[in-house]
Amino acid sequence: AQSVTQLGSHVSVSEGALVLLRCNYSSSVPPYLFWYVQYPNQGLQLLLKYTSAATLVKGINGFEAEFKKSETSFHLTKPSAHMSDAAEYFCAVTLSYNTDKLIFGTGTRLQVFP
Amino acid sequence: DAGITQSPRHKVTETGTPVTLRCHQTENHRYMYWYRQDPGHGLRLIHYSYGVKDTDKGEVSDGYSVSRSKTEDFLLTLESATSSQTSVYFCATSGAGGGTGELFFGEGSRLTVL
User: Fold this and answer.
1) Which DSSP category does A70 fall into?
2) Which of A4, A53, A61, B58 is the most exposed place for a label (fewest CB within 10 A)?
């Protein structure tokens, strides 16, 4: 069965500091992995996705994630945090290659302090 | 923006009453999904649809039913609401399927069951 685990329900960083949000996956087959972002009182939107084309994936707003098979990880990073990055971030894995049914992690809330 | 609207956006109801949430999309997407979001659980798939009148269960389908009589509308019904169904419900759509993982979300419907 496929699943994702997000380590840390809350992460706080200062503006300009490195952002690192952790995600580990469990999958019996090569996974498709995703990061979504949810701003307050909004739905989720796709940040980036890994579909085996390249292990380092760049997304919107300066975020990127690296797929590491040996560590079963897909951590999300951004070199320099902005106040506008404050949101909740969800890692997800596809449950089926025939649809887009996703299994989401429990989420990490990112706070950015001035 | 996939043009997904959910109604109602907020609803308070009493235990034992029926509730229907509506999702309407204007993008002609084939796939539609209902998720619920709860603290500590992330998003969990309730039901999904892969075409008109074609629906299937997700991981937390007990107590919920769905219907899709038109491409653009996907209804989620709680036949007899319980307090455990207090949650924020998100509708999502995708056009391609095939594991692309790109879901487009509505803004959510907050349901409180007293």
Assistant:
1) G
2) A53
Please check the confidence at residue B1 and state whether its pLDDT lies above 60.
Answer: no
Nearest-Cα distance to chain A for B107, in Å, is: 5
Helix, strand, coil tally for chain B in percent (to 5)? 5, 55, 40
For the range B64-68, what are the long-range contacts, defined as Cβ-Cβ under 8 Å and sequence gap of 24 or more? Answer: B64/B34, B66/B34, B68/B32
Which among A41, A49, A106 is the nearest to B101, CB-wise?
Answer: A49
Q: Chain-wide mean pLDDT for chain B? A: 92
Using pLDDT thresholds of 50, 70 and 90, give the confidence band for residue B40: confident
Do B40 and A98 lie within an 8 Å CB cutoff? no
Q: Are B24 and B4 in contact (CB under 8 A)?
A: yes
Using DSSP, state whether B54 is helix, strand or coil.
Answer: strand
| pLDDT tens, per residue, chain A with 114 residues | 778 999 999 999 999 999 999 999 987 777 788 999 999 888 899 999 887 778 899 999 999 999 998 899 999 999 999 999 999 999 998 866 666 788 899 999 999 999
Q: What is the nearest CA distance from B55 to chain A, expressed in angstroms?
A: 12
Cβ-Cβ pairs closer than 8 A, A with B, add up to: 81
How would residue B96 be classed by pLDDT, with cut points 50, 70 and 90? low
Within 8 A by CB and 6+ apart from A69, the residues are none
